[in-house]
Structure formats: C-alpha cells, structure tokens
Design brief:
The chain is α+β, with helices and mostly antiparallel strands. It folds into 2 domains: about 5-45; about 50-140, Lipocalin (Beta Barrel). Helix content is about 25%, strand content about 50%. It contains 2 helices and 8 strands, in the order H-H-E-E-E-E-E-E-E-E. It has helices spanning about 10-15, 15-45, and strands spanning about 50-60, 70-75, 80, 85-90, 95-105, 105-115, 120-130, 130-140. Strands 1-2-3-4-5-6-7-8 form an 8-stranded antiparallel β-barrel. Strand 2 (about 70-75) and strand 3 (about 80) form a beta hairpin. The protein is globular, with a radius of gyration of 26 Å.
Amino acid sequence: MLTRPLTHSAEFARSAAAPWLLTAALVVAVIGAAGDAEAKHARRAPAGLYDGIWNVEFATEAGNCSSGYRVPFTVRGRLVSSAGGGKVTGGIGRGGAVSVRVSVGASVASGNGRLAGNVGAGRWSGLISGDRCSGAWQATRG
C-alpha cells in the first residue's frame, strides 16, 4: 500500500512514462482552459454595429392574425434577446443578416431579415393563438 503520492515515489520518477504523463496532463489543462475562455467569450458577445434597442413592428400578410404588433428587441454584439414583451432569441451574422425566434405564451414565430444602420426589415411566420400566419417586419433602432 502506498503511503505517499505516486509522483513522489522512486519508481515513478525512474519510469519512462512519467514525462509523458506530465505532458499529457499539461496539454489537457491548456486545452481545457482555452475551451473555457472561448465559451466565456461566446457568452460575452463583443460590442457590435447593431447594439441597442430595436422596435420591431410585425405586419400580417397571410392568416387570421392581428397586424401591427410591436416588440422591443435588444441587440448586443451578435446576440438578439428580449427587451420586454416575450422570449426572444436569435443572432446577427455578417452584413447584418438577422434570424430570431419569438415566443409569447403558446404563440411562436420566427423571422429572418437584415439590419442596416438604424433600420431593418424581413419576413416572419409562426403559429399565433392557434392560427398559422406570416408576413413582414420592419425595425428601427432607438
């Protein structure tokens, strides 16, 4: 039975495996730390061209859904989230391409479009209060 750690034993120090085990442990530690840093960076999206509160108005073009709903979205870096008025998730890609999903109670909709400067526009579709609907959206920052 060992009474001291294996790393302190004479057998371990003379073992050819000892340097490889230490190297492997260091590689795993460095890779793990790099992965943690990347995950933290992804959660903290950097400031972007489209940061701020966007007021989005939805117009229904097909289906039996009311038109003219306005929902505030928050943009921070590449992430889109709710600024009140339901659960909003989404992201912004290169050139202002935006994709979002909005849910309020049993209603859910998704949309795609583009932001440019302080305005944006695109298309949406979803199941609103049991009715399948679609249409267009317009947004302004401010």
